[in-house]
Amino acid sequence: MIIGVPKEIKNNENRVGVTPAGVAEFRKAGHTVYVQASAGEGSGFSDADYEQAGALMLPTIAEVYGQAEMIVKVKEPIQEEYQLIREGQLLFTYFHFASSEELTHAMIERKATCLAYETVELPNRSLPLLVPMSEVAGRMAPQEGAKYLEKPLKGRGILLGGVPGVRPANVLILGGGVVGTNAAKVAAGFGAQVTIMDISLNRLRELDDIMPKNVVTQYSNDYNIRAAIKEADLIIGAVLIPGAKAPHLVTRDMLKDMKPGAVVVDVAVDQGGCIETCTPTTHENPTFIIDDVVHYCVANMPGAVPYTSTLALTNATLPYAVKLANLGWREACLRDASLRLGLNVVNGEVVYKGVAEAWGLPLTNVSKILEPAHA
């Protein structure tokens, strides 16, 4: 198969979809890999590194899309890329369709095969291609929150961990999954007083067992959230419903009950956000203020630490990408039920329930798409 690795062009996105080590794995399996010039520079990989691994370098993104049967990247295509995508071309990347109606309709129109990292799901319900970036974003969230709590950045002017004789900040984390757990570890390490909320009592029991004493758990419901936000200095949104929009747990009317200069970091913003007033921002302009509350809503947080993020992501995605290249997407998805759940849009048809429900679109059964008659 011919694999293409374009340079990411989303604002301040420095990750890359395949490392030189990944190129070597593709080449070992007999595949051709085209990499756009300077695609890996933001993550610390030179063109020479790719060439040494066996990649063929192309100067423009259009040439990469034009040559490749499978595009492997990090973030969803943006508007400048739509016209480069060919009918039947396989795109293996993060899509988050449920948060972008424009992207959904664009991929339907292009009749691409869109296999989304974020909906590949193992039998135990874990999301192996989302976990690495959730770990990075979760660990970054308290770090960014601590920064924006500083007064020069319009925050309350409070040190997350306090000092002897001065109480630490109160951190509220909504969601006890991978993001929430990693956020709690780091916030607790700073010395903050941390509360994690979740609707799974089993998960809360697990967290109660493993977390340090400055982390407490609480059942998540509207009443408890409304009470907790009054004391919170930092709120971290860490709720995920795979492939679907995140629910709004903090609504606009709740902001009036928050402390002036409090900070919200919505890690779920790329799935619509669990804080109603959050809309996606960029690393270039990461924050805005509503009702004296600082909102940090960068949709690609791990892009700020691209070396770590790229290695973590490609450790997880490469085995699946090689399987797709070796077998072709149809056979790979027939053999691997987890990979099959990654299919979101195929040949102009929506095949993932969460995407269809988000935009009121007809849902095609993925089994129908995979039938031999479609081959």
From TrEMBL:
Pfam family of the protein (one): AlaDh_PNT_N
GO molecular function: alanine dehydrogenase activity; nucleotide binding
Reaction(s) the record says it catalyses: L-alanine + NAD(+) + H2O = pyruvate + NH4(+) + NADH + H(+)
Enzyme class, first EC level, given as a word: oxidoreductase
UniProt superkingdom: Bacteria
GO CC list: plasma membrane
Keyword set includes Lyase: no
Binding locations of substrate: 15, 75
Family the entry assigns: Belongs to the AlaDH/PNT family.
NCBIfam families noted in UniProt: alaDH
Listed name of the protein: Alanine dehydrogenase
Organism expressing this protein natively: Hymenobacter oligotrophus
Gene: ald
